[in-house]
Amino acid sequence: MHYYGNETIMSLEQVLRLKASEVRILEWVRTYEFLENTYGVDEPVPYFLEIRCESEGVRIRKNRIMDFPDYQCEGEEVFPNVEQALAAFHQWAEEILARTEK
Questions:
Q1: Count of the separate structural domains present in the chain
Q2: Rounded to whole angstroms, how far apart are CA atoms 102 and 50?
Q3: CB count, 10 Å around CB of 53?
Q4: Closest among 9, 16, 21, 30 to 87, alpha carbons compared
């Protein structure tokens, strides 16, 4: 886990263990652009995710990495509370992990 300003960066595996109370405290979390393989080597992942507490609700985004550091948003949703947002956020993380395991 790393901190940059008010942003916390975690691995996809760490995000799956993220709790609603932690999101409220951290306010802005995103995933790494890399995933450690079975040999301990970082490999690029084509997506990174963000969850962010904002005045209008909790925003989650799925971003596709084009040519690092350039990316494009492929999915964005705003939820009224952290619990609903976190459930969708976890689902996106699981989908990305399932694709990278193949």
A1: 1
A2: 23
A3: 17
A4: 16
Q: What is the CA 63 to chain-centroid distance, rounded?
A: 9
Residue-wise pLDDT for 4-25, tens only, equals 667 899 989 899 999 999 999 9
Q: What is the SS3 assignment for 1?
A: coil
Q: Token pair of 91, please?
A: 């689902």
- The pTM is what? 0.88
Coil, strand, or helix at residue 78? strand
* Three-point CA angle 21, 96, 44, nearest 5°: 105
Neighbours of 15 (CB within 10 A): 22
Domain residues for 33? Answer: 2-101
Structure tokens at 77: 């949703």
| Residue 51 DSSP SS3 | strand
